[in-house]
UniProtKB/TrEMBL annotation, chain A:
Membrane topology: Multi-pass membrane protein
Stretches that traverse the bilayer: 12-31, 93-112, 166-185, 213-232, 252-279, 291-309
Keyword Cell membrane: yes
Protein name: Amino acid ABC transporter permease
Gene Ontology cellular component list: plasma membrane
Species this protein is from: Reyranella soli
TrEMBL record, chain B:
GO biological process, one term: L-valine import across plasma membrane
Annotated protein name in UniProt: ABC transporter ATP-binding protein
CDD domains on file: ABC_Mj1267_LivG_branched
Segments forming domain ABC transporter: 5-237
Coiled-coil residues: none
Keywords annotated in UniProt: ATP-binding, Nucleotide-binding, Transport
Source organism per UniProt: Reyranella soli
GO cellular component, one term: plasma membrane
Pfam families: ABC_tran (PF00005), BCA_ABC_TP_C (PF12399)
Domain of life: Bacteria
Gene Ontology MF terms: ATP binding; ATP hydrolysis activity; L-isoleucine transmembrane transporter activity; L-phenylalanine transmembrane transporter activity; L-valine transmembrane transporter activity
Length: 337, 243
């Protein structure tokens, strides 16, 4: 949490340039290694989703474990437009972002009346009921899902069959845009008011603001980012079904990435995805067929570790030493009181 | 003189308890009105009814001639009627400055302007040197002043203060009285609940005593604190008879 309040200094900027350069050049090394390229792409995708979750959950303090829903709605809208109406994915993108965004705002109206644990439960129930709807809705393929028609390779069709590197760069671009936007948001009026919502809604009300308004805005931004990530996923795997884009595990993972990395911090979700996605992928390989649930075991274990030792995530842990130095200085300054 | 705030026959009960019973009062523009009374007299409930944190059972509240009965807290603050909490509630992950900036953002859109206004308000309450310190470390006295700075940053024309002297140590009382006088001299009307009779005596222009949900006496601080009914309310009738 310290991260969001600290004034900008030079060190993060240098780190950002270095990491950015590595991410840009990474495909040169792994372009002919499909497993690694896919994993890197997934890290970027999940990092984007974590960023989206973080707007509402981290900055706004409204913990949702139903964010897979907005990812799924984006993924399904894109797939339906493509399969049923033959719409180009780029043209379908705005609608595929709009659908989850509007749905999220509508859902927020009743859900934001709930606080704390009750809000968390409501997000879970809403997402899970939509999952059930999609498993029986024949028009969208019910439990079997929809397969997208294969079109010629290229940027125009958002499909790359021989070389998957463009997907990597698309995911990187999406993450970069989202991260930049959230950075700006963090320093804006909205960013301030969201942190105030997280800290004390009643106090914010006593200063003339309606917390509900800012929670709804955060919800909309959050869902839009998840929706965009869903569109990417559909075009990447050319397939949607309820289990892969609306399953509960997605909602949990998205929240977990942000929380493990550091909720409410700009780079927390990226760090969380960078740690957890490879962990999951490699454990799946190591334990092969039966390994599908081993990654969940590891996640469960990590949740316990975070809850007990580092509630502020890896970022909080990293900035701990720097933070305590800053705090010591600040309290000296305040001693004159 | 036109009343800034006028409360007419406001009542509220909780189950069988009549917490506020048909209270009427006026606060003149630029006045400092104090409210005293033993615990359970209904002072805080009255405040919460005026500030929109509780709904009235009956009665009306007018602020600057506009009916505001039943308006939500945030709407009242936008109208210019702000209230501080009895237990102050700073935004814990923010600095003193950021706390006040949030309040300033109610009237100005830009962060830079909000920062400037917030600094001014911290200066007003004597907390400018704490600007970049996390508000979570504030002492009780600092919390009270931070709360006032935040309320001022919303640019109110009237301020309801719930026990501003509670937990404030003796040397700071004078400074706080000076601060509140300065706030009034900017044209902000004040209504203050306070248990510290000595501080109230020096601060307010007029005093109202409440007991069991009703206004029992209204007048100058000297009149009210000497009134037998007030003494009885505080001590209980039997002890007062011996006094």
């Amino acid at each position: 949490m310290i991260q969001t309040t600290s004034s900008p200094s030079r060190a993060p900027l240098v780190a950002l340039v270095v990491v950015g350069a590595i991410l840009l050049l990474l495909p040169l090394v792994i372009a002919d290694r499909p497993f690694e390229l896919r994993m890197a792409t997934l890290v970027l995708l999940f990092a984007t989703m974590g960023q989206g979750w973080n707007v509402l959950g981290g900055y706004g303090g409204q913990i949702s474990i139903g964010h897979g829903l907005y990812f799924g709605l984006g993924a399904y809208t894109s797939a339906v437009l493509s399969v049923k109406f033959g719409v180009n994915p780029w043209l379908g993108l705005p609608l595929a972002i709009l659908v989850p965004t509007l749905y999220a705002v509508a859902i927020g109206i009743p859900c934001f009346r709930l606080r704390g644990h009750y809000f968390v439960i409501a997000t879970l129930v809403v997402a899970e009921s939509m999952f059930q709807v999609f498993t029986v809705w024949d028009w969208v393929g019910a439990a079997i899902g929809l397969e997208l028609p294969v079109r010629p390779d290229g940027w125009l069709n958002f499909q790359f069959h021989r070389d998957k590197t463009p997907y990597y760069y698309l995911a990187l671009g999406l993450l970069a845009v989202v991260t930049f936007g959230i950075w700006r948001m963090g320093q804006s009026r909205l960013g301030f008011l969201l942190r105030a919502v997280r800290d004390d809604e009643e106090a914010l009300r006593s200063l003339g603001f309606s917390p509900q308004v800012y929670k709804s805005i955060a919800m909309a931004i959050s869902a839009a980012i998840l929706g965009a990530a869903g569109v990417f996923h559909t075009q990447y795997v050319l397939f949607v079904d309820p289990f892969s884009v609306l399953g509960l595990h997605l909602s949990v993972l998205v929240a977990l990435f942000a929380i493990l990395g550091g909720a409410g911090t700009l780079f927390g979700p990226i760090l969380g995805a960078a740690i957890l996605v490879p962990l999951s992928e490699y454990s799946r390989v190591a334990f092969s067929g039966s390994g599908r649930n081993v990654d969940l075991l590891i996640y469960g274990f990590l949740i316990m570790v975070i809850a007990v030792y580092r509630p502020d995530g890896v970022i909080g842990w990293l900035s701990r030493s720097a933070g305590s130095r800053r705090r010591a200085g600040a309290s000296m300054k305040g001693q004159g009181q | 003189m036109a009343a800034t705030l006028s409360v007419r026959q406001v009542s509220r009960s909780f189950g069988g308890l009549q917490a506020v019973n048909s209270v009427s009062l006026d606060v003149a523009a630029g006045e400092i009105l104090g409210i005293i009374g033993p615990n359970g007299a209904g002072k805080s409930t009255l405040f919460n009814l005026i500030a929109g944190q509780l709904r009235t059972d009956s009665g009306t509240v007018e602020f600057e001639g506009r009916p505001v009965t039943g308006l939500a807290t945030e709407a009242l603050v936008r109208c210019g009627l702000a209230k501080t909490f009895q237990t102050s509630r700073p935004f814990g992950t923010m600095t003193f400055l950021e706390n006040v900036m949030v309040a300033a953002l109610l009237r100005v859109p830009g962060i830079a302007t909000a920062r400037r206004i917030a600094l001014e308000q911290l200066e007003t309450v004597g907390l400018a040197h704490r600007a970049d310190v996390p508000a979570a470390w504030a002492s009780t006295g600092q919390r009270k002043r931070l709360e006032i700075a935040r309320a001022l940053a919303t640019q109110p024309r009237m301020l309801l203060l719930d026990e501003p002297f509670g937990g404030v140590d003796l040397p700071s009382v004078d400074a706080l009285i000076d601060l509140l006088q300065a706030v009034r001299s900017r044209g902000i009307t004040l209504m203050v609940i306070e248990h510290n009779l000595e501080a109230v005596h020096r601060l307010v222009d007029r005093l109202i005593a409440m007991h069991l949900g009703e206004v029992i006496v209204s007048g100058s601080p000297e009149q009210v604190t000497r009134d037998l009914r007030v003494v009885q309310a505080y001590l209980g009738a039997s002890e007062a008879a011996h006094a």
